Sequence to fold (643 residues):
Amino acid sequence: MSNLYSSILAVRDLKMYFPVRRGVMSRTVGYVYAVDGVTFSMDKKEILGLVGESGCSKTTLARTILMLEKPVSGQVLFDGKDLFKLRRRELAGLRKRLQIIFQDPTASLNPRMNILDILTEGLLQYGMVEGDRETHARKLLAEVGLDGDVIYRYPHEFSGGQRQRISIARAISLRPDFIVCDEPVSALDVSVQAQIINLLLDLRERYDLSYLFISHDLSVVGYIADRIAVMYLGRMVEVGPAGDVVEDPLHPYSQALLSAATAPGVYRKKRIILSGETPSPVAPPPGCVFHPRCPKSMPVCRKEVPRETVSGKRRVWCHLC
Amino acid sequence: MEPLLQVKGLSVSFTTDEAAFRAVDDVSFQVSVGEIVGLVGESGCGKSVTALSVLRLIPSPPGKIESGQILFKGEDLLKVDVSRMQNLRGKEISMIFQEPMSALSPLHRIGNQLVEAISLHRALSKKEAWNLAESYLKKVSLPDAGQKMFAYPYQLSGGMQQRVMIAMALLLEPDLVIADEPTTALDVTVQAQIFELLQKMRKEHTAVFLITHDMGVIWEMCDRVIVMYAARVVEEARRDTLFQSPAHPYTQGLLASSPKPVRNKTRLKAIPGQVPSPIHYLPGCRFRDRCAHAHGRCEREIPEWVDLGDGHRAACFLLSRG
Fold:
């Protein structure tokens, strides 16, 4: 693992709580502990896969990194600069280097804007248009494997896979260094999904991009990611090289999650069935948040929050390790 | 094994103001007693319409079952009257839908919904029916089954709702359960719990007809697999055969384009192009514009079935010699 300051992105002890308000006076009666002390870093050109089940705050973590939420505490260092301590002018220059691709391209492309406007809106904002707008937009479309003649069409005229290509073209238009890919292939058909995965990998090579790749599909993440981070209830439980985490997960939750993943054509080992459901993030269990469902839970797990254990390139938060 | 359900030459069309098209075109397959058969295909290929046709739940208009036979224990379901059909639904063939939240009534307590299903088919007292319903909630390992009988669907999580759906589908001990994407809306660890349940059901000789877009689910669950593309069945095989030696180029493409979590990463072999819309199906073989092996004959004729032995068949000219 690289030094926190030399990496493209470093997140340190990030906490994001949402207040729960009740009554006519909107009194704060508690907090949703959405992200609770997350630390990780990413190298240039790295793809970090972020996995976990619904409600584990994968998306909130990504939104906070993109400065769409203001964290309660913690740091997000991008290229060595703390994003939440920068002045507005410094921030403007940085914002364009962080981009996002959403899950549903139908919802994330404005239906009233044509492809030309969608692709060049950001370029105009930053005065980055090269030559005329049309030529630049055509160039972007070529990058994502679409025909340049479609610039005056509207999003509804495209299929899901094509729309996702347009969102990708928009995301790379400002020459970012870092892109959050929030379930970018989940809404697509299997045969089209592979095309988009290949495109994302090609663009990474061409522009040295780093991706924070969020997905619930462990086959996709296992394929595309260099490293995998597993989240449970707002906390990170394990981070490590993708192959290691997939083949030999160390945290009991990662073990259950990966044993439940379906890999066509691979005869499975024993499936670990977890009992019960993920607790509410409003009242997370004390100690290790996973202990009520953990098959290997010990008395200490109920009392103490597990510390980080580092072994080689892997990090685990578990009392067993 | 004797066939429980035999579908022969089923065609279903839909007519709207803009267009008329066939959503299911000459589909044949069978499900045997206690077997788990998977139907796999991408969005819009007609898999859900096939499932709904078996229970005659296609809204008409705009839908219409044009031709074919649906034989359940030898009885043609397309010929029986409405009251016989109502008798069959739930009791002998039941269905699990993808989204439990929209399949359960939001206004009625779980217990009452289960009891209603029982009282429609069996002459039990209210108390007996209630106890039976509760015993099924326990069977699907719903925690605090007794209390959950009084809960409304919104008070349960997605996984618990799906368990209630499964309990409801099993209540009357049907011979066949049709499950349309039963785990697509659920997290993987919950999916694993539901899979265990479906496997347990099969041990009690209930056949399952499982519809999914996910090859992983097929691999986990099924004995036999039917692959659909653009309203037609293109291949049918036992699970291991299909994954080891897929015969149709579409099945091959689908398997090659599924990402696997492996160390030595080779580039994914994506199928070029897009899933066609039913209004624009090509004449001849419908996969030919995305197929690397397409030739002149594929444009003119619908590929015939080629029997590859051991129940493995595929509809592709590459396989027919000559």
